[in-house]
Amino acid sequence: MAIILNLDVMLARRKMRSRELAEAIGMTEQNLSLLKSGKVKGVRFSTLEAICRHLACQPGDLLEYRADEGDEALG
Description:
Layout: E1 2-5, H1 7-13, H2 18-25, H3 29-37, H4 45-55, H5 59-62, E2 63-66
Antiparallel strand pairs: 1-2
Organism: Azospira oryzae
Protein name: Xre family transcriptional regulator
Domain HTH cro/C1-type: 13-62
């Protein structure tokens, strides 16, 4: 199972730089970079809320599920 964060896509759509978003939501650029690259194990709802508020989007615009090869459907 893989959850993909499409933050780069949303930043491009909003014509915004990572630095601007990081400053707006009170996050360091380094932590935002780790989030964008998928090198984190989780994200706080408060952080997700701040990102969505500033980018005027829904969590579903940022998060995507991609099944790993070989994963079987649950059921």
